[in-house]
Amino acid sequence: MKDIFLRLLISSPKNITSCQLTSIVNYSINFPPTYNTNNYACADFGINIGNLGGMNLPSTTVSSLLFNGRSPAILGQEVRARDSDSTTTITKTSNNSPLRQGGCLSSN
After folding, report:
1. Chain-centroid distance, C-alpha 50
2. Which of 73, 76, 82, 102 has the lowest CB atom count within 10 Å?
């Protein structure tokens, strides 16, 4: 498998404690089993992981005729609207994502 670049529109790297990392790993292993776009979907997982790392991400609900839940696009817009502070740097420049590292993915 070739390394590919994905375009980033925002990045917000953050140092976390060992306790926060343990909480993130445990949540990743034991996340809620029911996927439902209205109650628990990819944006919810990202918000919960980010908040375990101290990012204080908002949990804005988006409503339409067919959908009532958290939106990855709205989450990205909300993070992009933030300013950096003493603990979090928010970079709003479009760039390539970093190459993957380590042995987590197959190298086929």
Report:
1. 6
2. 102
All residues at 6 or more sequence positions from 54 whose CB lies less than 8 Å from its CB, including other chains: 14, 16, 20, 87
Q: Please tell me the distance from the alpha carbon of residue 72 to that of residue 42, in angstroms, as a whole number.
A: 7
pTM for the full predicted model:
0.72
Q: Give the Cα separation of 55 and 20 in Å (integer).
A: 11
The C-alpha atoms of residue 48 and residue 24 are separated, in whole angstroms, by: 9
**Burial readout 78-88 (b: 16 or more C-beta within 10 A, e: otherwise):** ebeebeeeeeb
Distance (Å, whole) CA 5 – CA 70: 26
Strands (E), the chain: 7-8, 61-63, 68-70, 95-96
**Nearest 5 degrees, angle CA 23-CA 25-CA 30?**
90
Q: How far apart are CA 76 and CA 97, in angstroms?
A: 15
